[in-house]
Amino acid sequence: MTTFTPISALLGGALIGLAASLYMLFNGKIAGVSGILADVVKPRESDRSLPLYFLGGLLLSGVIARLVFPSALPSITPSLAVGGVAGLLVGFGTRLGSGCTSGHGVCGLSRLSTRSLAATLTFMGAGVATVGVVRALGGGL
Amino acid sequence: MKSKLTALLAGLLFGGGLLISGMTNPAKVIGFLDVFGRWDPSLAFVMIGAIGVHFLALRWILALPRPLLGGAFQRPERSAIDAPLIVGAALFGVGWGLGGVCPGPGIVDAASGSGYAIVFTVAMVLGIVAQQRLLAPPARELTRA
């Protein structure tokens, strides 16, 4: 499977933390990606330009990565059918639970929010259990 | 105009962080969740790096009267640990474990042209719309009533 890469993980993580900090410092906004996407789909406020531009930055990073950093992009993946089911669950679940890995995991935990801690422990626990079940059934990458 | 530029820059750096940390590779995310198999603890180090920087920065940022480009600081709307939070997080966790992708990496990978991530992201948007239609009260009707 994949190898442990502590240095690039810490560096990339620090960059994520910096990005979330800049979005709060300049724009006053929480960098939760599922919430940003939901605001683009159906805005809660009249002005949806900020989430739209944040989303544009994310998309731009993917386009640039294809040109200069293709090794970071998915190579071995689950099937397309699994990807579709996973996407539905992630979209529905993150909105019902008001956040994802970035909103609860990074931003919420940085605020020492017990609500975000409960969400993070729940989705990590559910993820570990799911991978365990998939493995036990002979699936997985 | 400035606020749009900083939002774009924040999104770009956020995506760069996901790419450098390896989180745009579904195999690496599934490897982290594979605690009882061949565990790859990298994702925990991504969280440590991100929270370390953001926690310290927030001490300083939230002491300011307002964001540098005006407006007000967005605060989380709810603090209760309720059933929607736990059920939603659990559903998200199952999807995360199945697909190895959460919203940020899904969007970045889709933009890179990964067919898998495009299918995931389209389905994710459908999941968001479904939640908004089925469960979220329509804001306009509330204000009219």
Write a short abstract of this structure.
Chain A is mostly helical. Chain A has helices spanning 6-27, 33-41, 49-68, 80-96, 101-110, 114-136.
Description of the molecule:
The complex is a heterodimer of chains A (141) and B (145). Chain A has 141 residues and is mainly alpha-helical. In chain A, 72% of the residues lie in helices and 0% in strands. The longest helix of chain A is centred in the last third of the chain and has 23 residues, at 114-136. Chain A is globular, with a radius of gyration of 17 Å. Chain B starts with a helix and ends with a helix. Chains A and B meet through helix 1, helix 2, helix 3, helix 4 and helix 5 of A and helix 1, helix 2, helix 3, helix 4 and helix 5 of B.
Instruction: Please tell me the overall pLDDT of chain B.
Output: 93
Sketch the topology of chain A as an H/E string, one letter per element.
HHHHHH
Secondary-structure-derived class of chain B: mainly alpha
Give the % helix of chain B. 55-70%
The gyration radius over C-alpha positions of chain A equals: 17 Å
Our Rg estimate of chain B from Cα atoms comes to 18 Å
Output the structural class of chain A. mainly alpha
Distance between the termini of chain A: 8 Å
Portion in beta strands of chain B: under 5%
SSE arrangement of chain B, N to C: HHHHHHH
Query: Counting H and I runs of at least 4 residues, what is the number of helices of chain A?
Result: 6
